[in-house]
Amino acid sequence: MQVSLKGNTVIVGAQWGDEGKGKITNLLAGNADMVCRYAGGNNAGHTVVMGKKTFRLHQIPSGIFYPETLCIMGSGMVINLESLLEEIDSLEGQGVSTENLRIAQNAHVIMDYHILADRSREDSMGKAKIGTTGRGIGPAYMDKAARSGIRIIDLFEEDLLRGKISYHLGEKAKFLEGSGLTVEAVFNKTRAQAEKIRSLAADTPVILNQALKAGKKILFEGAQGALLDLDFGTYPYVTSSSAISGGASTGLGVPPSALGNIIGISKAYTTRVGSGPFPTELLDETGEHLRETGHEYGTTTGRPRRCGWLDAVVLRHAAVVNGLTSLAVTKLDVLSGMHPLKIARAYRAGAEEISSFPYSQTAFSRCLPVYEEMPGWEGDISSARSWNELPQAARNFLNRVEELCGVPIGIISVGAEKDETLIR
Ligand code: IMP
């Protein structure tokens, strides 16, 4: 199954990540000339089912399965070379060529000392910890913002690279005790990895802008989700990058006018990994049912995901900050057999009802969901291939989601397989 791509399109997570962006990107990627990742690093985990094989991508865009589609890892990413090389080897080992991959020369590199710093900071924070993936994402973006980071292009300037490594081992000494990291060891390991990706490093903004001028179709693949965005998420329980649609422009060096359609991906319920407020979280057997039926365990860390009902406040916020033109609702099949279904249409904080996203950390942590209840449906819906084949209760549920968040639903996923999808 391939879905036609009507112009350039951004795929973004409309919740806290893990919404199924990999599947939707893969559905559209076959019709795209380019698929580009613009933020994050190997904290992401995109599961793509191709026939009988399941692939788990962390940094490589989900367009890699189509040899004619150029895949770009953009300037806004932080790249872990070891994990990238493993991913390349694993794809090649399963017969997927990675010749169509390019890496932005000005993307930043995640170093081993970033990973140690991330884990050490989390350990020292006790109950206040963010619950990061422990992949060094925050510290790598910290160095980028501090203007001391190592970029892909820097890997090929030996003196510059050695100087930066030496500076960082000194500056981060308190995180590195007992690690045995030395300047020469880090330098040699990094240089060896760098040579393996040398041919992939490219001036990706130029490639992209030429493609735009030639009228090529570009798919921009978001990572994480709106609620994990550094600026617009549930700060401080967020990731350190710009996960929203605008990040595609700054993270790839293309004009905002190039972005085109913006599809927000949302599960038919909500999940979250890591710490932070989650008003519709279910800590009971209903949450457990969602976790087991939806296989809600992290692709990257294997952590059990926190599960809860769909939250329309979150979706409305995602619609605003991303400029969503449509929604793709995934995992609708997981709700089969659940009665009644609930959707949070607003929050209650004390006597007040709140219908928009509260930026206050304290206010958000105190919000309770105001639910609407709807009848559920019975039976397996994974064979439905058109709107009319869905049970009436499922259609009512989706219609209500559209009304509550003001965005039309264009794609509905009823199973992990590519074909288990309905286009509306
Ligand atoms: P970091 O990105 O590893 O720094 O983690 C910061 C927060 O973002 C933590 O709550 C992580 O669980 C969450 N996070 C990061 N990447 C993903 C993802 O791909 N899916 C879901 N949550 C993520």
Topology:
Elements (H helix, E strand, L loop, with lengths): L8 E5 L7 H9 L4 E4 L8 E5 L2 E5 L12 E4 L4 E2 L1 H13 L7 E4 L3 E2 L2 H14 L11 H9 L12 H14 L1 H4 L6 H15 L3 E2 L1 H10 L4 E4 L24 H5 L10 E7 L2 E3 L12 H9 L12 E3 L1 E2 H11 L3 E5 L10 E9 L2 E3 L6 H6 L1 E7 L17 H14 L3 E5 L7 E3 L1
Parallel strand pairs: 1-10, 1-11, 2-5, 2-10, 5-7, 6-8, 7-9, 11-15, 14-16, 15-19
Antiparallel strand pairs: 3-4, 12-13, 16-17, 16-18, 19-20
Helix pairs in contact: 3-4, 5-7
The structure holds inosinic acid.
How would you describe this structure to a colleague?
- The protein has 424 residues and is α/β, with parallel strands linked by helices.
- The chain folds into two domains: 9-105 and 203-423, Adenylosuccinate Synthetase, Chain A, domain 3 (Alpha-Beta Complex), CATH 3.90.170.10; 108-199, Adenylosuccinate Synthetase, subunit A, domain 2, CATH 1.10.300.10.
- The chain is built from 13 helices and 20 strands.
- The chain is globular, with a radius of gyration of 21 Å.
- It starts with 8 loop residues before the first strand and ends with a strand.
- The model has no long low-confidence stretch (mean pLDDT 95).
- The protein binds inosinic acid.
- Residues 16-18, 43-45, 130-133, 135, 137-138, 223-224, 228, 237, 239-240, 273-274 line the site of inosinic acid.
